[in-house]
Amino acid sequence: MERVQKVIANAGIASRRKAEELITKGRVSVNGVQITELGTKVDPMQDEVSVDGVPIHKEEPVYYLLYKPTGVISSVSDDKNRKVVTDFLPTESRIYPIGRLDYDTSGLILLTNDGDFANILMHPKYRINKTYVAKVEGVPEREDLKKLQHGIKLDDRKTSPAKVKIVKQDRTKGTAILEITIHEGRNRQVRRMLEAIGHPVIKLKREQYGFLTLHGLNAGEYRELKPHEVKKLRELAVT
To answer: Going by fewer Cβ within 10 Å, which terminus of the chain is more open, N or C?
Structure first.
């Protein structure tokens, strides 16, 4: 027997947290009976679970790594008809991105139909490092880098310490390339951190997520994660 929210998440309908919201709002039924209790348990093989009157069918979990180009929305749809990350992937499975990359940011993003897996990776208490390469205006001084390393106050809350180094600098052109590693995922965090020290981002790319990299991929290309990579991500998230 499993909790209903877990069954919904495993079916790729929503993350476990969103599934709980569906239950409390009365949008879920078991064998035709509406439920609102989060503790309700069902037999996934015997009981029929429905969301908004539509029975769910458990899909085989899929896990993708996409090299997101710039000018693409990290969503499954867009009301302005702009390209979204799912446009680059097979459409037979109901998939969605794990977290977000800004419209103007390129790089590594994960997608899945496994709500439980997505929820683990996105939960604030789990700390998976994400490494970005940023081209910025100006050349940061050592004191600027120390501010990032100690944390920057954003929205009245300090960021966790970042790892940062200058990869390349061009004082003639007044630009620098930085490598910065964080484990948080606040809105436009890297851009805002660099703006806060007076070095706005010109170009930003996420090159690494935990142990995963973009090796062998060009912008717009993807690959499926290997089973051992999925297992390692789960282990990395909860340690």
So the answer is: C
Q: Which two three-digit tokens encode residue 80? A: 């302005």
The DSSP secondary structure of 136-195, one letter per residue, reads EES---HHHHHHHHH--EETTEEPPP-EEEEEEEETTTTEEEEEEEES---TTHHHHHHH
Residue type, 127: R
Q: Which of 1, 2, 239 is nearest to 116 (CA)?
A: 2
How many other CB atoms sit within 10 Å of the CB of residue 211?
11
* Token pair recorded at residue 156: 């009245």
- All domains of the chain in start order, with CATH: 2-55 (3.10.290.10), 63-125+212-238 (3.30.70.580), 130-209 (3.30.70.1560)
Residue 218 confidence (pLDDT): 98
CA 74, 78, 80, 85 dihedral sign is positive
Give the active site residues.
Answer: 102
Tokens of 65: 């790594």
